[in-house]
Amino acid sequence: MINEIIGIIFMVIGSLFYILAGLGLLRMPDSFNRIQAGTKATTLGAFSILLGVGIYDFSNMIKCLIIIVLIALTNPIGSSVLARTAYKNGERGVAK
Amino acid sequence: MMILILSLIGVGVLLSVIRLIKGPSVMDRIISVDTINMMIVGLIAVLAALLKNSLYLDIAIVYGILAFLETIVLAKYMEGKS
Fold this sequence. Notes:
The complex is a heterodimer.
Chain A: H1 2-27, H2 31-56, H3 61-88
Chain B: H1 2-22, H2 26-51, H3 55-78
Helix pairs in contact in B: 1-2, 2-3
């Protein structure tokens, strides 16, 4: 019973981070700022939600840790490749 | 309680879809698609906890790998085209 409550708290924290990612994606003025807001907040939100699912039912913990390692390996690479492509296409940002 | 979590994730996806529709350049749309993919991985994991079925986590693993591949392929395709 106590692990279900702790898991639900982790999942609520993760979904609030998802809302922050969407808000930053909508409000930021520039492509690089949008990459920052969309990738970092989404990575932390996915960590928190998957940890919450693993705590909610302990038999799912191994698969959740596998997905956490996968996201920690692939999400920064995707962000870096997106920023490289935006820079090579002539995007320079709003700050001089 | 799970319905509240699914609704919060839905609000995040909705805010990203607004940027996907009105994005000024193609790179903004690709960034938005990447963000939506990571949100859907979390949503499938919550669905596994809601329905008490462990097979949805396998779907989340495969979806994460395919989302990474999609981001890399779209970014390398757009390189050089302004």
